[in-house]
Amino acid sequence: MKFKLSIFALVLTLFASCAEMQQLAKTIYDEQQPLSQSEIIAGLKQALVVGTDSSVAKLSVVDGYLKDEAVKISLPPEADAITNNLSKLPGGQALVDKVITNINHAASDAAKEAAPIIINSIKSMTIQDAAGILTGGDYAATEYLKKTNYDALANLYAPKIKVSLEKKLVGNISAQQSWDEMTGKWNQVAGSFVGQIANLEKVETDLSAYLTQKALDGLFLKIAEAEKDIRQDPAARVTDLLKRVFGR
User: Fold this and answer.
1) Structure-derived torsion over alpha carbons of residues 49, 54, 60, 65, reported in degrees to the nearest 10
2) d(CA 40, CA 244)
3) Which of 65, 89, 132, 205 is the most exposed place for a label (fewest CB within 10 A)?
4) Structural domain range at position 132
5) pLDDT category, 7, cuts 50, 70, 90?
6) Contacts of 144 (CB under 8 A, 6+ apart)
C-alpha cells in the first residue's frame, strides 16, 4: 500500500513538473517571438495609460503641485511687476504666497479630471507612430502625445481648470479670488499718480489660460518620468504586456 502511494505521489510530482516546464517553455517561446504591430501599439498605449494614472494620482493630492519643485506653479511672468515691487503693495508678500498656494491647489484639484481626457487621446496612436516611438528615447511616447494632442488637450482641460479656480478650496477663498485681490490692489497702486511716475505696469493676465498651460506641462513631465521608469526599470512594468514590449 505504501509502495502504491509512493508511486502515485511520484506521478503527481512528474505531472506538476511537466506543467511547470511547459509554462517555462511557453514563456521562453513567447519572449523569443518578434513583437507584432498590435502588441507594439498596445504596449505603448498601456505604458502611457499607466504613466498617466500614476502621475494623476501623485498630482491630484492637495499639495501634489505645491510640494513638488519640479512642477510647482509660480506666478505668471507678468506678475514680476508685483513681486519686484512688493514694498509698494500693502501686505504684498502674504498676498503673493496665498495666490501661489491657491493656484497650485487649483491645479491639483483639476488634475483629478485629467486622466480620462489624456487616455482618450492615447487611443489615436497609429502603427506608424508606434514603430518609431518604441525604439525612441526615454520620453518618446510622452513627447509624441504632447506634440500631437497638446492643443486639443488644453481646450478640453481648460474648463476643468476654470472650475477649480473658482472653487473655494482653502480658507473659504478660491484661487481666482486671491488672484483678483492681489492684482486689484496692485493695479490701484500702478494706476495711481505715484505709480505712473514710477512707470509701474498693471497686471491683467488671463489666469485660467496660464494655469491650464502650467498644469498640463507639469502633468506631462510626470508622465514622461513614468515612461522612463517603464523603459528602464523592470519593476515598473506592472503588466505582462509591458514586460514583453519593453523587456527586450
Assistant:
1) -110
2) 9
3) 132
4) 36-246
5) very low
6) 125, 129, 133
φ/ψ of residue 204, rounded to 5: -135, 45
Q: Are strands 168-170 and 173-174 parallel, antiparallel or unpaired?
A: antiparallel
* Residue 27, in any domain of the structure: no
Distance CA 77, CA 100 (A): 13
Q: CA 68 to CA 54: how far, in whole Å?
A: 15
Helix (H, G, I), strand (E, B) or coil at 173: strand
Tell me whether residue 20 is in a domain: no
In the chain, the number of structural domains is: 1
- Tell me the pLDDT tens digit for each residue of 199-244: 888 888 899 999 999 999 999 999 999 999 998 988 988 888 888 8
Q: Which residue's entry shows cell 499718480?
A: 193
**Which helix H or strand E contains 169, and what residues bound it?**
strand 168-170
For the segment 121-139, the average pLDDT, to the nearest whole number, is 80
